[in-house]
Amino acid sequence: MRASDRAYSALLEEIQTGALAPGTVLGEVEQSARLGVSRTPLRAALARLTADGLVAQTSPRVTVVTHVDGDDIRALFVVRRALEETAARLAAASPRAARFAALVQAFDAARLDGEAARDAYYRLIAEFDAALDAAAANEYLTSALRTVRTHLVRVRRLARYQPERLAASVSEHRLIAAAIAAGDGDLAAHATHVHLHNALTSILESLDDAAPSPDRKALA
């Protein structure tokens, strides 16, 4: 793997997991030393992250991790809804649609009790996304979805864990998979729309709950 790719992967993971929080300054000298790469591959990595919208350059030698607010998340979900509803319709009309029957069974068997079980569920979601991309069979669409998912990982980390919402997500994904397996594009798109509406509402509520109120700030 090239040095620029290593630096990009390391910084991407740290931004997505929150290890590099919004507002963190990424100085060239410090990051080059920390990641063990020279400035040229680091600059290439930062350029990719800038194109992703995850960092912004504030001076020729200083880059900052971008902030995420409610308006950013709403805008992201506008794009996500258009892409995923279209992908669901294409998947339902695909010769690969029948493969989603196995995913229906996997969602039926999904468990959320404990961190290991939740990690397994997130891997199942990744499997579902990969199956959706393969069935949609449109590289332009799936390329756009990959960009959206890069941001979604970060948004999910910023949101508070909600057991009820995660349980509802299992049922919603199961319905989408069942509709695709049945070749029902309208139901697949509608189920995707409902799922994304619920996901967005939950994320925004979680961020609102986490934000300090004016009274709390005054007491701080």
Structural summary, described in words:
With 220 residues, the chain is mainly alpha-helical. It folds into two domains: 3-65, Arc Repressor Mutant, subunit A (Orthogonal Bundle); 70-210, GntR ligand-binding domain-like (Four Helix Bundle (Hemerythrin (Met), subunit A)), CATH 1.20.120. It is 74% helix and 5% strand.
- Low-pLDDT parts are 216-220
Instruction: Classify the beta-strand content into a percent band.
Output: 5-15%
Compressed to H and E, one letter per element, the order equals HEHHEEHHHHHHH
Tertiary shape? globular
Which strands sit side by side, in order, in the main sheet?
1-3-2
**Total count of helical runs of at least 4 residues:** 10
Number of domains: 2
Class from secondary-structure proportions: mainly alpha
The largest β sheet comes out as: 3 strands, antiparallel
CATH class of the largest domain: Mainly Alpha
What is the helix fraction of residues, given as a range?
over 70%
